[in-house]
Every structure is written in C-alpha cells, then in structure tokens.
Amino acid sequence: MKKTILSAKEVFKSFAHNGKQVHILTGMNVDIYEGDFTVIMGASGSGKSTTLYVLSGMDGATGGSVIYNGEDLTKLSEKKLSVLRYSDFGFVFQQMHLVSNLSLYENIIVPGYLNKKRSASETEKRADELLEKMGISDIRDHLPSQCSGGEQQRCAIARAVINEPKLLFADEPTGALNRKNTSEVLDLLTELNRNGQSILMVTHDLKAACRASRILYIEDGRIIGDLDLAMYDEKDEKSRETQVNAWLTSLEW
Amino acid sequence: MKSILKLMQAHIRRGKDAFFGILLLMSLITFSFSGTVSNDDVLRNELEKNFAEENVGDLVIMMYDDNLTEDMLSSLDSNTKVAGYSVKKLMYLKSLPVVDGHEEEVVLNFRRWNEDINIFNDSSDGFTEDNELKQGEILLPYKLKMNKRMKPGAEISFTTSSGRIEKYTVKGFYEDKVFGATTVTDSYCVLPEEDYDRLAAEELDHTDSPRRLLLMAAEIHIYAADGVTAADLSRDLTDGPLIRSANAVSSRQHLMELFEMYSNTGTRGMAVFTLILLTAILITMHNSISASVEMEYTDLGILRALGFSVSRIRLIYVAEYVLALVAGSILGIVVSIPVCAVLIRKWMNITCILTDTGVSLFKCAVMAIAMILVCIGFIFIATSKVSHISPVRAISGGRSEVYFDSRLNSRIRKHPFSLSLVLRQLNTHRRNYAGTAFIVAILVYFLVSITLLTANLDPDKLFSTTKGEINILNTGGLTISNADEIEDAVREMDSGASLYTKSAHRMIVDWEFVSVDSFRRTEDQYDIIDGRQPKFDNEIMLTKNLADDLGKTIGDTVTVTYMDKKEEYIVTGYFQTIFEFGNVSMMTSEGMTKLGYNDIREAQVSLSDTSKKDEITDMLNSRFADRLSASENKESATMLTYKKIVNVLMNSSIYTMYIVILIFAAVVVVMLCRRSFIRERTDIGIFKALGMSAGSLRNQFALRFAAVALIGSVVGGAASAFLARKMIAFMLKIVGLTDIKAAVSPMTFALPAAAVCICFFVFAYIVSGKIKSVDVRELITE
Hints:
The complex is a heterodimer.
Chain A: E1 4-17, E2 20-33, E3 37-42, H1 48-55, E4 63-68, E5 71-72, H2 78-87, E6 89-92, H3 104-114, H4 120-134, H5 149-161, E7 167-171, H6 179-194, E8 198-202, H7 206-209, E9 214-219, E10 222-228, H8 237-250
Parallel strand pairs in A: 3-8, 3-9, 6-7, 7-8
Antiparallel strand pairs in A: 1-2, 1-4, 4-5, 9-10
Helix pairs in contact in A: 3-4, 3-5, 4-5, 5-6
Chain B: H1 2-14, H2 16-53, E1 59-64, H3 70-77, E2 82-93, E3 98-99, E4 102-103, E5 108-112, E6 137-141, E7 155-159, E8 165-174, E9 187-191, H4 193-202, E10 214-224, H5 230-237, H6 241-244, E11 248-251, H7 252-295, H8 297-306, H9 310-351, H10 361-382, H11 391-395, H12 400-403, H13 417-428, H14 430-456, H15 459-463, E12 470-474, H16 483-491, E13 498-509, E14 512-519, E15 527-531, E16 539-543, H17 544-550, E17 557-562, E18 565-576, E19 584-588, H18 589-594, E20 602-606, H19 613-623, E21 628-632, H20 637-679, H21 681-690, H22 694-732, H23 746-767, H24 770-773, H25 776-780
Parallel strand pairs in B: 5-9, 6-8, 14-19, 16-18
Antiparallel strand pairs in B: 1-10, 1-11, 2-5, 2-10, 3-4, 3-7, 7-8, 12-20, 12-21, 13-14, 13-17, 13-20, 15-18, 16-19, 17-18
C-alpha cells in the first residue's frame, strides 16, 4: 500500500480578470504517493502549472485544502512555508532561475546553508557530491550565464535536492532545453526517483511523461485521468510511449 | 519626434519612481536656494535704491565737527579725483540714555527731522501716512524695536553738560536707510527740528570741553570722479588731514555690506549646499539611468533593431529627465514663494529696511536652467552605455557585458550567512553602490560641516566682550593715564579687584583705515590664531584678514598714523574677530599713547568680592564724577535680543538644512531601493522559493543599503575631518572668521553618520515590504 505524501481536497484556484472571475482549478482532488514519479499532463491552459504551484505552497488556493504531514498548506504562515521549502520540498523551474551572481556551486549551497540540521561542512560535502553526480563539478565556479541550458538545469536539480527533500516539484524542467540536454535531465530525474526521490512533474512532452510511474491528466482544472505505469526501463521506451500515447488519445489530448 | 514622446510617456509610466524622485530632488534644491537668492536680490535692489535716494558718497567720512576745517573741504574742491562732496550734520550722545527710568546700554546719535523720513506702521510691513514729528517726540531706528523698553510711548531722557534733563516720547520707528542695520553699533534717532536746533545752539559740548556728553559730528559724503574707485580715493586722501582726523571712514560698498553681512555668509553656505545637492542628484540620475539601461536591455535592443539610432534613444532619457527637472524646478520655486515672504520679513530684523518679499523669479529661473543644462550633459554621459547595446545580442539575452562589472570574490558562508549574501550583492553591483556611497559621503560631509559651523557661530562667544561686574562709561576725560588711579581706588575696597579698559580708534595702518584697539589687560581678549599678543609699545597684532590685505606677516613692520603722528610697529601675531568684518588690529596701551591717543572707550571692574559691587559703584561715581559714570555691568537688552535673533535665524537655517538633507536622503534611498528591488525581483523570488523567509530577505536588503551608507559615512567623515574647516573658513571669512577652532569630538562625526545609516536602513526596509505581500509565483513570473 502506497503512502500518501501530499493530498489535495476540493482545491479551487481563481483570479479576477477585467472584472470577471477566471477559474483555473475547480475542485481538484488528488493524492500524491511517496516514491512515485508523478507527471501531470494536460492541454495548454488546463491548469497544470497552477496545480504544481498550489500543491507546493508557492501559490495560494482560493478554496479547499492541501494536506502535507497532517498540516493544511493553504493555512500555513509564510514563515512555516519558507521552512517547508528548504527542508521538505525542492523545486525545479522551467527557466532554471539560478541566482545570476552566484556560481553554480554557490547556487547549490545557499539553500543548504538554510538547513539548520546540517553543519556547514556536511552541506559543502553534499554539494560536492551532487556536483559530481550531475557532471558539473569542473564548472562549479562558473556563473549561470557562462553555462549551457543543460548545465544550468542540472545545477537547478542539484540545488533542489541538496537538503534531501521529501518531494521534488518540477515545472516543465526540459521545456527550455534541446534534445540532448532534455535526455540528460530526464535521466537524472529518473535516477533520483530510482533512489527513492518522490517527484511531481508537469510536462507537455510525451517522452518526459514516459519516465513517470504515474500520469495524471488534467482538464478544466480537474484530474480526469490517472494512469499507473511500471518503473521506467530504457529498453521498454517505445512500447511505453505507445501505451501512454494511446491513453492520452483516449482522453482527447 | 512623436515616437520619442510616445516612448518617453511609456518610459515614465514604467519608471514612475525615477521620474518623481528626480522631480522631488530638483524641487528640494530650487526650494533651498530660492529663499537665499531672493533675499539677497531684494536686499541689494533696495539698498541701491535707498543709497541713491540718500545720495550716499563713494567714500563717507565721519568726524567731530570741531575737527572739520574749511581747508579740509577746500582740499576736496581742488582734488581731481573728487567729483564733489556733501556734508550732513548729526549729534553724538556720549552718555547712556534712560528709558522709562532704566539706563540702557545703547549708543544714540541724533539727526534732524525731514519729510523724506519713512515711519513704520504698527505692523512694520509698510509706512504710515502720518509723516510728522512734533516737539518732544523722538523717532528710533527700527533695530531698537528689539529692545522691549523702547516702544512707542516710552520716555527717553538724557542729561546734558549744563545739567538739563532732556525728555522725549518715542513716537515710533523709522527706516534708517544707510546706518540702520543691526550690525552698526550706533543708533541714529531723529529729533524734531525745534528740539534739534535748540540742542545744537544751547547744549553742545566740544572736543576740548572737560565734559563731553553731546558733540556735533559731520558726515562727509565724497563722490569719486569718473573712473576713480573708492579704494583709489581712500588711498589718495590717506595722508591728508581729513582722514587723519576722522573717527570712521567707510566706502559705499562697505556700508552696503553692513546690511548684507549675514545674508552673504548665508549665500556662500547655500552655494556650497546647492552644489552638494546637485552632485547628489547627478549621481542619483546616473544610477537610475544605468539601472534602467540594464533592466530594459532587451527592449532597447529591440528599438535598435527597429531602426532607432543611439542618439534617439538617448533623447528619450534626456526628454524624460528634463521634464522631471523642469517640473521640479517650477514646483520648488512655487512652494518657496510663501516661505520666501516669511524669510525675507524675518531678515528685516537684521537689515531693518523694508524690502519686497517676492521671489526673484528671473534669477532663480536662470540658476535652475544652468543646473538643468549641467544635468543634460550628465545624462548624455550616463546613457553612453546605450551605444554598446548590440541589437542581436540584446534580443537573444546576451547581456553579460552590461550586467556584471566585477569578478565574484566574497565567499558565501553559512556563518554569517546573511552578511555574506549582502557583501556578495554589494560586490556584484559595485559601481552602482559606489555612486550611492558617494552620495552618502556628501550628505554626511555636509551634516558634519553644519555641526562645526553651529559651534563656531555661537553668538555668545562671538559677541561677548564685557568683563566684570561694574561698567564704567567715559563721560569725558577718562584716559589711559587715569587707569592706575582708578584701579588703586577700587582695590582699597576689594584688594582682588581688577580694572579692564579698552581704547579703540580708527587709525591708518599702512594704507588701510581700520580700528586699532588696546587693552589694559590683554588676556583672552581675542582668539589668537598664530604668534603672540603684543607686549611692548612697538608691537602690534593684526587679524589674518587685515594682514592678508596689507601683505604683511609676523615679524614685518607696519606704520600706524593717527592725526599728525606716525609710528612703526612690529607684527607679533594674528587673531580673529567678528567685529569690523575682521579688520581690526591690537596694540598695548603704551603703544596707543605713543600715537597721542589716550582716551578710554570702555572700562569694566572685575571684583573678587561681589558683595562690594554697589559700594564700589557709588565710590567711583562720587570720587571720579568729573570723568566717568559707573553702573552695574549687564549686556544691553538690544545685544541680548540681537543674539537671540541670530540664534533663531541660525538654528532655523540649520534645522531646515538638516531636514532638507534627510528628505533628500530618503528620496534617494527610495529611488535606489525601488530600482534595486525591480532589478533583483527575480532573484528575490528565487530565494523565497528556496526557503528564505520574507523577513530575512527584507533584512538583507535593508542591511545592504545600511552597509553602503556606512561606507559612505566613513568616507564623508574622513573628508570632513580634512576639508570641512577650510570650507567653513571660506564661508565665514566674509564676517572676519578665518580660523575654525570649534572642538571636534567623535560625536561630531558619529551622529550625522548614524542618522544617515538609520535613514537608509529604515527606508530600504520599508520599500522591500513588497517581498512580504507578493506570492512567490508572481515574483518569478516574467
């Protein structure tokens, strides 16, 4: 029996535009399980990224609740949310969003220093390990502007996992990358998941979606499809793609 | 043109903070200088008009009428440098007047009534129609209005040598257009024709009378021929009997400067202040433009790709900032109009003449335009980066050449984590923050200078000359050779008592007609800058101002001429004083008697046993009644009120400057902080997404600006330690102070620095409030 790590109950998200209410999420109900590589897919404007931001506490919900560790994230104070962001959650953005005047090493280490449970030397040692793992230790002192998109995104992933978060959120992490870099980043995420990292990722890319162990399909602000898959194996890639494509087509993707 | 205007409008909408910030800063500058410029302007205009009406000569010689001979006047007729002359008569009262039963420490002179005299109305904002002076009435100069007893209806009386008590009722105050300023010691009152003529015929004394209580004086106005200056005229007449017999010689310019003395000091101060604020505004604009170019790099690249030339793009910035500067100038001048009116009216307490109260729009506008032109030049320099923008690179995001200007070299550490991030931010944008630090340095420098200026302009220290508990007035016949006798008489009753005397007369030192003072006891008389006080009868001490004018240094010899006597004296040292615009010299009593001058101008008795004060006063009045009048020594009510006014004017000017500077700092901080916040918006959002709390981010943001302010304060403090005294000496030289000696303590620097640092921290913290209220997602969404 899988353990629920994050649970959304009747979550609504709306905002006002030109005097009218625009509803993005309309009663979202979903449980995210520990150890899963969960992917959210949907058409453009269906509320994928909004779901990710609301579930991670980055954005507030208009209604409903998001339960993590027995607490409702929608009611937590800003201070408690900040603690959650560096201790329990990690976030990878589509545009990487590395701090421009910190080196790759420093970008990784800054959230590590926020973690009071680890000493500086332990953090630095972990950062070194992650740099090695991501294959960017030889450019550790480079600024983000001096690196390729793939290198930056690998740094962003390392930054997101420096504190060994319970759940890693990724918003279209390969959206800004070329094919080679996309493949490299997806391999990294897959390996992290194999090692026990829970991941919740948003993507519109079929190849990226095929790395998942669970795919959620969102339409009009609600989950309308839920597909469980086996752990990803490179050898089964083609059949996996066909299976996922068929499922998505049935949902009129 | 239309495209530039459209882009300018959009730019202003987008960068409202910069636009309104510059507008506000410019309005502060124009507001600051409008008052001073207008005050100087209206004062000078009024003085020119008044002096023309009064037909004041290029050179004005005051002397006792007894000393004026027909030969002296004839010599003027035959002098080719003299176009003509006129003589006015007045009377000197040598005793102290009694006002409503109280003796007043004030020197009164009397003029004869004429219909051109303007009498102030009750509110002193105009003149009364009732233009006559009846027998038994007296008009006082406006400066005596500060004396609480000397009000309309008060009775003023004095005793003549014949024993007659003259009584007059104060009718009101009149405008003394030539000698009315509070900086002139004597007060020229107006008597009705009948009373004046009667006194002149029946009660006058002469210079050789045993008692000299009422003396006739002549005011000779000499008009220079074309092409001849007052200085030429003065030098030409120096060796002649006219100047040698004079009590005082002043040029027309000097008489005008008596009115303008303090406003000129204020003008110099304001000039420095305006320059400082202008420098700060230029740096702020540079920062703002640089930040704008950085943040709008892509948009500017697009404009270039669309065909906009570099100069067109720069014109957008010029148009925007010129609009802000012009609007700010107009706002500052408009706001200053009511303030000017109040300031100029207050200033009337020192000048004592009625002037217009309007703002000198033309002069203020010219100054504002000059500053705007300087700013335009600066804007062109600041926008030079635009020429480095390659359209393709800009659009494709390659902006490293304009974004970072330094290598990263301050480590990020866990402890202290916040401080290490602060230092990194400072280091990354060093050039931008250097400009901010420079502004802080300027502000702190000016605040320290103001503090030093206040300490040096303490009216109690500047004007106080009286020593002792008993004041002695020379009623005629009190000479330096009497001093020992008087002191011995006092010591019979108080063995520890001392007599202090001062003699002073204007004499010719080399070729300058200046006051020569001598003292029976010389300790602490003047503020010695260099050398020592004269000890022997062939020694003299000069003010630095006078020494510079004469081209003399310590050890040189000067020639002092009084009447027909000439003697040489060795310069032993320099001192400074605010009296006589700092043109004063000092010698020993023996040195003075060598020139044939023996009179004591003022004397005081300092007691060791103050309980004997009344007894000794009575003794002096009875034993030496033929030559002196003794009374309790107290500062005249007029001098006290004058000091109070100077204090109030100085304090209000200084507090105004402090407030303007702090408002300036606040505006600069808000502008810079907002720009920094917008530039770092994404980074702030990222830090928030990584788990930094809003409070921690705000603290870092504010700490960064406090750190910049601290760096600037250190630089400003160091600069003021070296330069402030010189700057203040430049400002105060005009009133005779050349050496700034106010004690400096660490607080002199620490207080202004702390004020500016706290201001920066607080305003940066306030501006960063948006961090708290905005969702992370919004911050990192482009």
